[in-house]
């Protein structure tokens, strides 16, 4: 097994070192005709970032999420999967797909099939890998050269503690620790990030400020003035742990009312993660467990996403015209909605130069000149989890960060106090 591993905090150059090491490796052992680099990530955000970096290097490559790669393996080797006793899972049952793909890749012929065209694989943001997905990476390591990067503290899944990937990689490889920040040189931001990682109290300064904003008008004043004074210096993101009452009411007020200083109103659109979009749409789907195609079509038309509606209605039309079907199950429609959301997010063009609102999860793998964090009372989780959430928000900022807590009482507890 040949593995190069890198660990370090947000903005410390893990992806840069992956690209640098890849270039060195391919200079020593060039790709043969028809071969490509395999680049895997857990989330589409990091996939887009990797895709941009790999395109600049000029090597032949395939960049995909590990779930998409797993599905391709399962479809290609479905007969062997059935022979091994595995039923073909739904494409949208991602954990089951990855479990079957891992079992297949543990077979000599299957991993050899991958290695023949992909002799080297990159895995970015590997701290987010569940056990099923880690099995895939371990299986690939038997025949492929692996270049991997992770930061355990950026993992927001409390079910992955202790972290499976980080425990495995420290046992099989000499991990290179990256501890020099490159995203920002602003001392206040660096000090706040360090304090959060170490379980200490983050201190307000000039470029990192924590304020209590218990009322919507006060939060609107702080937020709108910050945007008005700083937006000319670059992109601004409003980040919150969850889309709840506090964040929703503050952003609505910001969109409607200017401050006494003349800043605003500002319309701030939500940029939600794939899972957040899917959860919202499935919650809007009013459909029985089995329904006629007409009822399903009417239910889909009521969803608040035109591109998704068009894609799913096209599939429903195909079921009627090409297959003569008169009914569908709710599960089938949910599966089609999930595929349409995934496809639209995968190929969406995204620029981080505007004014956006995101959840902490949705902001991963993004960076902005300025960040405003809305921290409500409703944040759940352990003290450690809250520090990780705030860390992942603060480290999106390159120049400044303003944190607005819903009440004074929050400032006496984690993540604002040790």
Provide the fold topology.
Elements: E1 2-8, H1 14-28, E2 37-41, H2 44-57, E3 61-65, H3 66-76, H4 78-83, H5 94-105, H6 108-117, E4 120-123, H7 131-141, E5 145-150, H8 164-172, E6 175-178, H9 187-197, E7 208-212, H10 216-230, E8 236-240, H11 245-256, E9 269-270, H12 274-284, E10 290-292, H13 293-301, H14 306-321, E11 327-329, H15 330-346, E12 355-359, H16 360-363, E13 368-375, H17 383-394, E14 397-405
Parallel strand pairs: 1-5, 1-6, 2-3, 2-4, 4-5, 7-14, 8-12, 8-13, 9-12, 13-14
Antiparallel strand pairs: 10-11
Helix pairs in contact: 1-2, 3-5, 5-7, 9-17, 10-11, 12-15, 13-14, 14-15
Domain UvrD-like helicase C-terminal: 356-403
InterPro entries: DNA_helicase_UvrD/REP (IPR000212), P-loop_NTPase (IPR027417), UvrD-like_helicase_C (IPR027785)
GO biological process, one term: recombinational repair
How would you describe what is shown here?
There is one protein chain. By secondary structure, the protein is an alpha/beta fold. It has three domains: 2-178, Rossmann fold, CATH 3.40.50.300; 187-271 and 352-412, Rossmann fold, CATH 3.40.50; 274-346, no CATH class. 47% of the residues lie in helices and 17% in strands. The protein contains 17 helices and 14 strands. Strands 3-2-4-5-1-6 form a six-stranded parallel beta sheet, sandwiched between helices. Helix 13 (293-301) packs antiparallel against helix 14 (306-321). The model has no long low-confidence stretch (mean pLDDT 94).
């Amino acid at each position: 097994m040949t593995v190069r591993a890198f660990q370090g905090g947000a903005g410390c150059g893990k992806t840069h070192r992956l690209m640098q090491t890849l270039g060195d490796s391919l200079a020593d052992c060039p790709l043969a005709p028809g071969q490509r680099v395999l680049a895997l990530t857990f989330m589409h955000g990091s996939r887009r970032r990797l895709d941009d970096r790999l395109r600049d290097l000029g090597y032949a490559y395939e960049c995909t999420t590990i779930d998409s790669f797993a599905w391709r393996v399962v479809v290609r080797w479905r007969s062997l999967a059935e022979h091994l006793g595995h039923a073909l899972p739904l494409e949208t049952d991602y954990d089951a797909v990855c479990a079957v793909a891992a079992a297949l890749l543990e077979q000599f012929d299957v991993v050899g099939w991958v290695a023949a065209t992909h002799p080297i694989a990159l895995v970015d943001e590997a701290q987010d890998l569940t056990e099923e997905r880690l099995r895939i990476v371990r299986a690939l390591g038997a025949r492929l050269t692996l270049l991997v990067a992770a930061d355990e503290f950026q993992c927001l899944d409390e079910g992955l503690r202790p972290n499976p990937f980080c425990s495995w990689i420290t046992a099989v490889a000499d991990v290179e620790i990256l501890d020099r920040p490159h995203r920002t040189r602003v001392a206040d931001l660096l000090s706040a990030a360090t304090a959060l990682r170490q379980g200490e109290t983050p201190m307000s300064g000039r470029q990192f400020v924590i304020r209590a904003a218990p009322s919507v008008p006060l939060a609107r004043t702080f937020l709108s003035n910050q945007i008005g004074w700083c937006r000319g210096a670059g992109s601004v993101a409003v980040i919150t742990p969850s889309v709840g009452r506090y964040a929703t009411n503050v952003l609505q007020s910001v969109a409607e009312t200017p401050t006494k200083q003349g800043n605003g109103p500002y319309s701030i659109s939500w940029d939600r993660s794939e899972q957040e979009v899917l959860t919202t749409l499935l919650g809007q789907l009013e459909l029985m467990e089995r329904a006629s195609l007409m009822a399903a079509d009417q239910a889909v038309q009521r969803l608040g996403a035109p591109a998704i509606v068009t894609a799913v209605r096209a599939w429903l039309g195909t079921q009627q015209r090409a297959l003569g079907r008169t009914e569908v199950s709710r599960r089938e429609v949910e599966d089609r909605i999930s595929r349409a959301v995934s496809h639209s997010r995968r190929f969406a063009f995204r620029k981080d130069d505007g004014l956006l609102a995101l959840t902490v999860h949705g902001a991963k793998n993004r960076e902005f000149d300025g960040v405003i964090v809305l921290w409500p009372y409703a944040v759940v989780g352990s003290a450690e989890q809250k520090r990780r959430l705030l860390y992942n928000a603060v480290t999106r900022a390159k120049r400044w960060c303003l944190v607005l807590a819903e009440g004074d009482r929050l400032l006496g507890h984690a993540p604002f106090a040790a």
